[in-house]
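User: Sequence in, structure out. Go.
Assistant: Echoing your sequence, followed by the C-alpha cells.
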Amino acid sequence: MVVARPFETLFEGSNGRYYTDWQVARRRRTGEWTLCMRQRTPDRQLVETDGGALLLLAPTDPETLPPGLEIRVRDGRARVVNVRCGLPE
C-alpha cells in the first residue's frame, strides 16, 4: 500500500532551515518572501525576505531532516517543527 505524503516538496534553505511547500507558499502569499528567481531543473527558488536578505531554497529528501526536526500535519497543512522546543521552523 502506498500512502500519499501530506506535502509535495521539502526545501532546505541556505539559512540552514527547512520548509514544506505549504510554508514557502504561505510566506510568498503573505509578502514575507518575494520570489526573485526560479530555476526548474534542478528546482530551486531564490526569494527575498521581508528583511531584504536573499534565501536560496532547494528541494531535499525528507529522510535527511536533521535530528530534532520533524514534519507535522494539522488542518491539512504540513510544517517543519523543531521538536526540541516545539516551534515551527
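User: And one key feature?
Assistant: The helical segments are 21-29.
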